[in-house]
Design goal:
There is one protein chain. The longest helix has 4 residues. A 10-stranded antiparallel beta sheet has the order 6-7-8-9-21-17-16-11-14-13, with no helix packed on it. Strands 5, 10, 12, 15, 18, 19 and 20 form a 7-stranded antiparallel beta sheet that branches. Strands 1-2-3-4 form a 4-stranded antiparallel beta sheet, with no helix packed on it. The radius of gyration is 18 Å and the shape is globular. Helices cover about 5% and strands about 45% of the residues. It has a single domain, classed as Beta-galactosidase, Chain A, domain 5 (Distorted Sandwich), CATH 2.70.98.10. The chain has about 290 residues and is mainly β.
Length: about 290
């Protein structure tokens, strides 16, 4: 761990696991705003219009990078600004970054980062109900990827002779299923990011494989998580969602829905791994 300046933000925290490096903001967020493998370009998108800004206009800003929200999406609830300084605390096995309680929702959002061997990180996302009543919600971990790559979305396989469905595809109203950015395969769906696209595109599904990836310029970021087969997920059963527009692409994982009592919290863990495409044959075969 060391402190660095990045994209105009001061006092960012840099963490390394082998050649895999993360940079986390403390002046706003928390956001993982830099993701690198060796000398690669930044794997995540940083919004050039808000990079380095620390003033609090009272409005939500995209900034870019990786953030934590709570689902289902709604305005203004989901768009509580994260423009204030972050509370940084050392834990027994890593670092915890918290923005404190959202005054508009009564929810406290935080994530902890633990360095793992072999070029991996464990990111534990937590939502705590600081209000006086029960709240139904799911943890929603969104990573905004740099343009030009492909999201790899694994499809549930299952028994080919089964009589009941095993895939629950959710499609947003603005999504065109004939969109050329979508490539439909037998084992995975690809979603391409296109800087010339005129409309956004978003789909989600029940990801029983428990992972989601993005490949760009020969580098892969893979996010793994636990999919709970019998749990209720938001957005018609989505444990993953992928969104893109002409600027970026988001790979998103979600926890099941919970009814949080006052003072209770939930956790959603992602394992991040970055590698060269040549070292990810499972993903390379799907591209």
């Amino acid at each position: 761990m060391k402190t660095v300046n990045f994209q105009g933000w001061k006092n960012c925290v840099e963490l390394k696991s082998g050649k895999f490096k993360l940079i986390v903001t403390t002046e706003i967020g928390p956001r993982i705003i830099g993701v690198f493998l060796g000398g690669s370009d930044n794997l995540v998108y940083v919004d050039p219009d808000t990079a380095g800004k620390t003033d609090d206009p009272g409005d939500w800003r995209i900034y870019g990078g990786h953030r934590l929200w709570h689902s289902p999406e709604a305005k203004p609830r989901s768009y509580a600004p994260d423009n204030s300084k972050v509370q940084l605390k050392k834990t027994a096995d890593g670092l915890c970054f918290s923005a404190g309680m959202e005054h508009s929702t009564g929810i406290e959002k935080s994530f902890s980062i633990k360095t793992l061997p072999a070029g991996k990180f464990a990111i534990t996302h937590k939502l705590k109900n600081c209000s006086l009543w029960n709240v139904e919600l799911a943890a929603w971990a969104l990573t905004v990827m740099a343009p030009g790559g492909n999201a790899v979305i694994p499809l549930p396989q299952g028994d080919k002779k089964a009589l009941l469905p095993n895939r629950y595809l959710t499609v947003w109203p603005y999504t065109d299923l004939s969109d050329k950015r979508l490539v439909w395969g037998s084992k995975a769906i690809l979603m391409k990011q296109d800087i010339k696209a005129k409309i956004p595109c978003k789909i989600g599904l029940n990801c029983e494989d428990g992972w989601l990836a993005y490949a760009n310029k020969g580098v892969v970021l893979k996010k793994s998580f636990q999919h709970m087969a019998d749990a209720e997920y938001p957005d018609n059963g989505c444990s993953i969602e992928v969104y893109t527009n002409n600027a970026m692409l988001e790979i998103e994982t979600l926890s099941p829905m919970f009814s949080l009592e006052p003072g209770a919290e939930l956790s959603h863990i992602e394992i991040w791994e970055a590698c060269g495409l040549e070292k990810c044959p499972q993903i390379a075969k799907l591209l």
